């Protein structure tokens, strides 16, 4: 059990570290110490989470938008709002859940394509273009 947990933490941390470095205006939502080992919720400002999910789906990558509490809803997450996440980031929230079956290659695939997706979507957004 400990090995499985350590494996998932390693995948999660690799994903977070890379995306925070490669995607400007990205943030981890929530406590980075006391949390589940297999889940990360990231916000990418000035883009819509649903648009990110559509693009990820084209590459065969599964993720969710918002917080788990509002999964399936297009309303901004009340949980993320209560955490003080800016409105410009709440809508760009994406949740990745990792299992023992996920591989490092799958995480690397997300790391490889996500910066391009974020840049593309920001170029389409009037808010994102102002930041570029």
The helical percent reads 40-55%
Q: From N to C, what is the helix and strand string?
A: HEEHEHHEHH
Per DSSP, the total helix count is: 6
- The CATH topology label is Aspartate Aminotransferase, domain 1
For the biggest β-sheet, the strand order reads 1-2-4-3
Could you state the CATH homologous superfamily?
Aspartate Aminotransferase, domain 1
Radius of gyration: 14 Å
Structural class designation: alpha+beta
Distance between the termini: 44 Å
Please state the second-level CATH architecture. Alpha-Beta Complex
| Percent strand | 5-15%
Overall 3D form: globular
Summarize the topology.
Layout: H1 2-22, E1 26-28, E2 39-44, H2 49-58, E3 64-65, H3 78-82, H4 87-90, E4 93-97, H5 104-124, H6 126-131
Antiparallel strand pairs: 1-2, 2-4, 3-4
Helix pairs in contact: 1-5, 2-5
Short note summarizing the structure:
The chain has 132 residues and is an alpha+beta fold.
Verbal overview:
- The protein is of the alpha+beta class and 132 residues long.
- The chain is 51% helix and 12% strand.
- It has helices spanning 2-22, 49-58, 78-82, 87-90, 104-124, 126-131; strands at residues 26-28, 39-44, 64-65, 93-97.
- It has a four-stranded antiparallel sheet with strand order 1-2-4-3.
- The termini are far apart.
């Amino acid at each position: 059990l400990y090995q499985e947990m350590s494996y998932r933490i390693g995948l999660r941390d690799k994903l977070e570290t890379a995306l925070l470095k490669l995607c400007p205006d990205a943030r981890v939502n929530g406590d980075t110490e006391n949390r589940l080992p297999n889940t990360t919720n990231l916000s990418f400002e000035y883009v819509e989470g649903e648009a990110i999910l559509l693009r990820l789906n084209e590459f065969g990558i599964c993720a969710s938008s918002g917080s788990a509490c509002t999964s399936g809803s297009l309303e901004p997450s009340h949980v993320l709002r209560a955490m003080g996440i800016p409105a410009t980031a709440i809508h760009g929230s994406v949740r990745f859940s990792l299992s023992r079956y996920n591989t490092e290659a799958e995480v690397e695939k997300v790391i490889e394509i996500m910066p391009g997706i974020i840049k593309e979507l920001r170029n389409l957004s009037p808010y994102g273009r102002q930041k570029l």
